[in-house]
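Good day; I would like, with your permission, to put a structural problem before you. What I wish to show you is a protein chain and, alongside it, a tokenised description of its three-dimensional fold. Here, with my thanks, is the record as I have it:
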Amino acid sequence: MVQRDYDAVVRRVEAVSGVDVYELGEVEGLPVLRVSAGKGDAPVVYINGGTHGDEPAGVEAALAFLEGEWDRWADRVRFEVIPCLCPWSYVHNARLNAQEVDVNWAFLRDDVPEIEILKGFVEGRIFAGVIDLHEDWESPGFYLYEMFGDRGSLGREMVARVTQVCPINKNAEIESEVAVNGVIHPNMEVSRRKYGEGIPIALYQRGHTGHLVTSESPTTQPMDVRVAAHLAAVEVMVEAQV
């Protein structure tokens, strides 16, 4: 059953001024859009939303960033934004895609259209930072997963910023991972054995970025709070590049 209007997402993307909009491909007749913005030779931050269709706050946050945030850093950072990687799932409010596949954990498959689109987009690219916007309907507050290299962690700073707008999940264990004040530095081998080759693991371990954050907003909070939480985390990621 159709539950959301994806055309409204497309219209909002196309209405953003000063950016370049590209169609990366189609999923079930729906376009997957990529937005490029900012200075061409600057460090590139990739923002991804809509991997799970039942997590609309990521899409809303990506759109809000394009509509009112990116130009603050336009002369110092370049942005690549995919507001909704899985439009069919978004329209149907579904975690899985039309094939009943969890796209987030299907990077090794070659028969998933959303994954093929993503692989084509990231091929040959290295991003200064990647932030993947998700939700958790069971969580009492915001938390994040972080994989990072030589430049060091931003997790604590992100949580400190998010605290100003959203509750934090302070549990010592979240999704079977050790967590410290809302920050998880995941055991990637355990995650791979448990779920398969996930998009974040693949992007990090295959050298597409040296810093990747999966931002998890609590679905129990109002949409504006969830969006503000994601934007606060994005802000810290971007500020680290300037």
Notes: The beta strands are 20-27, 30-38, 44-48, 78-82, 129-136, 143-148, 173-174, 177-178, 183-184, 211-218. The helical segments are 6-15, 56-68, 87-91, 113-122, 155-162, 188-195, 199-205, 223-239. The two ends are 44 Å apart (CA to CA). The domain at 6-239 is CATH 3.40.630.10 (Aminopeptidase).
